[in-house]
Design brief:
InterPro entries: AmpC-like, Beta-lactam-related, Beta-lactam/transpept-like, DUF7586. By secondary structure, the protein is of the alpha+beta class. The protein is built from 12 helices and 19 strands.
């Protein structure tokens, strides 16, 4: 059986390099780097350049723009997991005096605060951070442009506030927290706030002629948590694998999974894109991808991850516009997934000591009214409830220490599932958020809300 750690097939590698070559040529990028990771490691990288003999590799730094926001979000989730703040806390509780009202930390993470997308003039990405020495200069006189909590509206100042929140609660700089809490544990030694050679230079490519113009590379100052970082394809592969599986040294798998859950409705006019807690979500026919795109003058970047398949794709280019790095990163992932899909783990029975006779008695068919469902045992005493035919509400449930279960996804996420027993100890029914599931449809004499006609089932 093929291992995820084995090298890609030559035909797959050629398809990946062809995609990078086409992106560099069609996007008119001075250079372009792509990489793919799976099974815990980078398994492929490739690049193209307009300069013969000066082809960048997976260790060459590019500016990654708003992919920086994902790192800032991870720092905030770490604070939550340590009990230092709550996601539903108003920002003002921990960072008073901002003037943004009662917006919550969760709303900031998911871009549902209603804050403006950009800072007041001048263009913050092409001017030094000293132009905006503090939050008042970042937010301006009217920072709120929409009612909070109602809709998605991307906000760079919002992530500046989150960076300042990290500093206020942690008592250290955003950069120091980033290095000690994420970069060092994940081995991302080539991800830095300022460029470290070898690194690409940023260029603007004329839209109507094949000529170049160098772009300025400014330190963003207080805006750094929204888009400052430089990184490499190899480092972003490491980060992408972390976003798929978590790492207890940085953030648990459960908390990373929480980041991947949509925080609000998608942006108007873009139903294919959602946003979680610091992560973009792309919906497609082949399943969803999570990650983020980034851009700053002279650079564009994309990082996308197929969590189910455990594959991450990275695309980096040094041009202000043209190369569609987000599209290419997603294409790299899908190329590998389609050509070399992950082998499922072998089926194995439960260890003898984990067989729960009481739980086994609950498996099999259950009926909500006349809807037929099946209940089966999942890992760690969890259960799965799913329709036996047609469409319906499928959900996984996690076992609770005090008994019963709580829903993990779908309509029943967060809802309690309990077993209701008769006085003699036998099972009467399942209660799922007040819905009654019985062993037979509308079983006479059982706890069916509204009762059951005494004459029972009949024909016409």
């Amino acid at each position: 059986m093929t291992s995820d750690f084995e090298a890609l097939l030559p035909s797959t590698e050629r398809s990946l390099l062809h995609r990078v070559a086409r992106a560099q040529s069609e996007g008119r990028a001075p250079s372009f780097v792509g990489a793919v990771a799976r099974g815990g490691a980078m398994v492929w990288s490739g690049s193209r350049s307009c300069v013969e003999g000066h082809v960048p590799d997976a260790d060459t730094q590019y500016r990654i723009g708003s992919i920086t926001k994902v790192f800032t979000a991870v720092l905030v989730l770490r604070l939550r997991d340590e009990g230092l703040l709550g996601l539903d806390d108003p920002l003002e509780k921990h960072l008073p005096g901002t003037g943004v009202g009662e917006v919550t930390i969760a709303q900031l993470l998911g871009h549902t605060t209603g804050l403006a997308a950009e800072t007041p003039s001048p263009w913050w990405e092409r001017t030094p951070g000293s132009t905006r020495p503090g939050l008042p200069e970042v937010l301006g006189e009217k920072p709120v442009v929409h009612p909070a909590g109602r809709s998605f509206h991307y906000s760079n100042p919002g992530y500046t506030l989150l960076g300042s929140l990290v500093e206020a609660v942690r008592g250290t700089s955003w950069e120091e927290a980033l290095r000690g809490e994420i970069l060092e544990p994940l081995g991302m030694g080539r991800t830095t706030v300022d460029p470290v050679a070898p690194h690409a230079s940023g260029w603007a490519v004329h839209p109507w002629a094949d000529v170049l113009l160098p772009e300025p590379s400014e330190h963003l100052g207080v805006m750094a948590p929204a888009g400052q970082l430089w990184s490499t394809a190899a480092d972003l592969c490491r980060f992408g694998l972390f976003l798929a599986a978590g790492d207890d040294r940085v953030l648990s798998a459960a908390s990373v999974a929480e980041m991947r859950v949509p925080a609000g409705p998608p942006a108007v006019g873009d139903p294919q894109m959602g946003y979680g807690l610091g992560l973009q979500i792309a919906y497609g026919e082949g399943g969803s991808l999570i990650g983020h795109g980034g851009s700053l003058p002279g650079f564009v970047a994309g990082l996308w991850v197929d969590v189910e398949q455990g594959v991450a794709g990275v695309a980096l280019a040094n041009a202000t516009s043209g190369p569609l790095t987000g599209v290419v990163a997603a294409d790299l992932v899908r190329t590998v997934v389609e050509a070399e899909p992950r082998f499922p783990e072998p089926w194995r029975p439960l260890p003898a000591g984990e067989v729960d006779r009481e739980l086994l008695e609950l498996t099999g068919p259950w009926y909500w009214g006349t809807y037929a469902y099946g209940l089966r045992v999942g890992p760690e005493r969890g259960v799965v409830l799913e329709p036996l035919r047609g469409t319906g509400r499928r959900a996984r449930f996690r076992a609770l220490p005090e008994g019963g279960w709580v829903g993990l996804d779908g309509y029943y996420a967060g809802e309690a599932l309990t077993v209701v027993r008769r006085p003699d100890g036998g099972v009467s029914h399942l209660d799922l958020g007040s819905f009654v599931f019985t062993r037979e449809p509308y079983e006479p004499g059982d706890a069916v809300p509204g009762g059951v006609d005494e004459a029972g089932w009949r024909g016409l």
